[in-house]
Amino acid sequence: MDYGGGMGGWGWLFGALVLVGVVLLVVVAVRLLGGGSGGGAGGVAGGGAPGPAPREDPRARARALLDERYARGEIDTDEYRERRQALDEGS
């Protein structure tokens, strides 16, 4: 009796290729939906070659996070002002 599904014993290879294909699709979907690893097609302006990603100022990022926390109500006005002043003094 032939229990190999008519593939002559190569059924395992087909199954392995299908599994690799599914894993690759999941990886690509995660990168596309999750913003990628930073080396994608975004950031090419005017058709030129992509350069290195611009470095964000750490203080600007800290200020943005502070603004977000205040907007969400995680910190009150006094704490917001105190932390903003500390950030501004560090400039």
From TrEMBL:
It holds the Pfam family SHOCT. Residues 36-58 are annotated as: Disordered. InterPro entries: SHOCT. The chain crosses the membrane at residues 12-33. Residues 64-87 form the SHOCT domain. Keywords: Membrane, Transmembrane, Transmembrane helix. Residues 36-50 have a biased composition (Gly residues). The keyword Transmembrane applies. The keyword ATP-binding does not apply. This is SHOCT domain-containing protein.
